């Protein structure tokens, strides 16, 4: 998802009997649905897994601004432009909530930025695809934010308090993101044949990468099992993908679009759709840094950071001067 | 330069008449910028009528390990709740 394939350092999930009393007490609290808070004891693996997951999630929100930012200056109307700006600004906010949540686990903001900018940290594969037309912006809201919601709603019940609370805030804002995207597409499919074709083309390109957002099947993954035991993760990747497909197919139909999957069909018996496998080779390639826009995204991110240095330094200098002035005034008054 | 900005805890009064509530934290070089940033990060949808910020390093917190000694003593003092006392119906509202 926004944090795809998070490692846990676990070789296997241990039972309560195998844990020492402190860890057992921790696991029992998690099992009982209690929230774990920053200063409380937690297994080192739990802490590390959360740092990886939350920072990946934060990076995804931040990098996720770039494909959409590409269209802010070219939105078809002033209203669409204002909406897109607000949406992208929300994503910046999401990144900030999440960085703060990660910081409560002992990693600093600068360390996380460094990991992102050096290419060491991952972010969601989805943001390494290009936004070629205005329909892509609608498709991102509808599909990408739609998939994100699927994943983020259960994360509100995550065992780690600061992460769960950040997710509550984020989920409140996501619904706007998905609706504005779908709304843009509803308008376009009622337009000229060329506009409708543009929407179909966007769906064709975004459908599979959206399904990949949930990550490969993790039914056999130790990391997933451990994350679930810690209640960092609540559902398997396949479960969420299935839910997403079942929710999205009727929405595509309403728009009069064809989902680009010849294997897609309703399965009455399971009460859900059967559908094809995403191209996992492509997925691993994108994750490894070889997607269509990986280099461009990272460069844009680094450029923004470096170009903003003078401004950050200026604010720091101003804050220091003002503090000095206050101290001097205080001494003079005494 | 480029030392990391300090962390600030943000408290927002959601509506007139309510307490300020902790909503999260953010980095900023000084209190003024912390308020500006808090406006953008935490009140994009009219979530507040007033913002407090305080440096995280200025907050003293009780330790999780003190939970027992701090809060257990009040468990046994059930008489602090009005429902502890049975007042006959004839007495009327009390
Ligand atoms: Fe987001
Ligand atoms: Fe997003
Ligand atoms: Fe979003």
TrEMBL record, chain A:
Keywords: Oxidoreductase. One of its GO terms (molecular function) is phenylacetyl-CoA 1,2-epoxidase activity. Its EC number is 1.14.13.149. This is 1,2-phenylacetyl-CoA epoxidase subunit A. The keyword Heme does not apply. The keyword Oxidoreductase applies. It comes from the Bacteria. It is an enzyme of class 1 (oxidoreductase). Gene3D superfamilies: 1.20.1260.10. InterPro entries: Aromatic_CoA_ox/epox, Ferritin-like, Ferritin-like_SF, PaaA, PaaA_PaaC.
Automatic annotation (TrEMBL), chain B:
The keyword RNA-binding does not apply. InterPro entries: PaaB, PaaB_sf. The keyword Oxidoreductase applies. Keywords: Oxidoreductase. Its EC number is 1.14.13.149. One of its GO terms (molecular function) is phenylacetyl-CoA 1,2-epoxidase activity. It comes from the Bacteria. Signal peptide: none annotated. Gene3D superfamilies: Phenylacetic acid degradation B. It is an enzyme of class 1 (oxidoreductase). NCBIfam families: PA_CoA_Oxy2. This is 1,2-phenylacetyl-CoA epoxidase subunit B. It comes from Rhizobium tropici.
